[in-house]
Amino acid sequence: MAELTGLADDRALLGRTSTAERVSDILRSRIADGFFPPGTRLSEDSIGGALGVSRNTLREAFRLLTHERLLVHELNRGVFVRVLTVDDVTDIYRTRGLVECAVVRSLGEPPYAVEGLAAAVAEGRRAAGEGDWKSVSTANIHFHRELVALAGSARTDEVMRSVFAELRLAFHVVDDPRRLHEPYLARNGEILQTLRAGRREEAEKLLADYLDDSLAGLVEVYGRRVSDGGGGVG
Question: Which residues touch 34 (CB under 8 Å, ≥6 apart)?
Fold first, then answer.
């Protein structure tokens, strides 16, 4: 299976403690990177063999990722990478709006530690210059993870890690990633500069508008793609 290419190399990440949590971390990363696209059936034998872990360990990792809504178990068929509905996408953005805007609103007095945001903006611009729109998508997620990290809350980071991983399931179904992600390169930069200048309320407004526009654009292209069968389980 092509999507298993390189998975055996991840054995080293397991170290001497091959726990289900470590396996789930590896699979979550692979799903986020698109190695296992939405609708893909995950083979216990192939993945367990590639990682060198027991069936029980792998099943526990699958259970953890199912709880995170990245996988779905279908009776008598197996475990599949989840295909989001349009309602799922809308709910993800509702959660993003509640959390991300609240983080910016509660930042307190400037200056703000925006170095991580700046690095993510630079990462996105580099990727765009190379025409690597998959990496632009990754940089965009990094920008928003860094934005959430400004809250200094490990719990919020953990919640949003799952939300962003689930969001990428939608991104992987979209057939024109440039159209989806390119407009937000400049908007990320604008939010960065506004926060750098200490204008928190303005940044929150920019972010809220950004999320509204991003949702509308994603629902348009994602809904059409899924209805055409581009994201169906197979």
Answer: 134, 168, 172
